[in-house]
């Protein structure tokens, strides 16, 4: 029957999406289907038998998780399971089914996200190595068709593994008294998370093709540790950090399981994990949006939707032109606006904040902002040849005005102006919060730290752009190494000096807000003037190099 049905399915898929047809035909072979099906079924049987072995019996009836118990005697805390009138052990079967449901859910999350992402990155890496990805670029199919076909086709064996587990998983949820609509809600959240992480994996594979075989391991391990960390937090936490770090929990689909656990109406002390209190205490701009399951569902899906959309813009750009920057400058401003709105919302989780409490939250906020701006710098900064083409155009069209517009919106111009504007927009948004929630001197110091941090970020971006103009083939490695050293140097200085002079070192670090309260006015002024002078000097050097390169390129073409 399978041999008769299989060709018709393949033909139907080929008519819808040729790329999906190519992937399915290569991976969904009878041998692979049988192996994956057996692995899924055997895994479910073993899990069922393992958990079934944990149920209380007449021989093992002491201190069991799945039964109501009473003390065995007045001298011992050891509990003994109760029996019904027929002499059978009274087991909490709903709790047992809930444990089975939760275990399968968490295992499914790891298998779908980690294994699926690994397969996608490996596939794109192989396509790059064989140079077949350039062939796909020449086809009339759109990036949506090709990359969408890969997202559906490359991990199709993983989908098959999960689909075979759905009947037992859904049945376990029903037996645990979880409403079916919430189970389907979890499936939608899991699907949205797959779409997000698979899109991120595609973008990572397109922009990091120089890593070779290490590419897939790096990407999948990053997702694995992200899921592992958030799994531990969601299982155990009764209250989260009340800082911007809580935002990352929204990208872990297992967080939604707390709503399903609550719907069973079992005692939280009896269950012992996935407490709803963590979600109930989670705020965004002082509002308890996550107390209701469907409001929380909508916000989780919206969060996935926003960032999947922006990741997909990068995938389309890098697919059509592998030498193009990952995002346009215009899109970077919109992405920064989305980012700062989300990030500040999780910083202001409480309606009333003391000055010191807000300062601690602000430092976490600035740390996350800094790493975001690093990613924006990497995504916006053009390579050497792109800058040479731009500089030659500027040299040949000396009457071309609109330089500021070109620097802020142009596709091939240096990225420093756009990065500076991104920083300005983000800082303007956070400034009212600093003015409202800080007091006295703290207000001035925090604003000073914000300005110094912005200047340091512009310095890093300028240095990175300058180093990408080097003629050596290892310019990307050199630029990344130099900027990384400048970022971690303050930490090294702290270790070497055992903390003495820490404040002065950290004024020239990515996080000067940590140290502005520890130094006097003159070091702050000196730091500000030094940073401004460095920015002016480096940008003057960059302009000089680009003008010289444009002149040289023009002469080379004319000759």
TrEMBL record:
UniProt keywords, alphabetically: Membrane, Transmembrane, Transmembrane helix
Parts of the chain that traverse the membrane: 33-51, 95-121, 152-174, 181-208, 214-235, 247-268, 288-312, 333-350, 362-381, 415-439, 445-470, 482-508, 520-540
Statement: the UniProt record of this protein carries the keyword Disulfide bond: no
Designated name of the protein: ABC transporter permease
Species of provenance: Cyanobacterium aponinum 0216
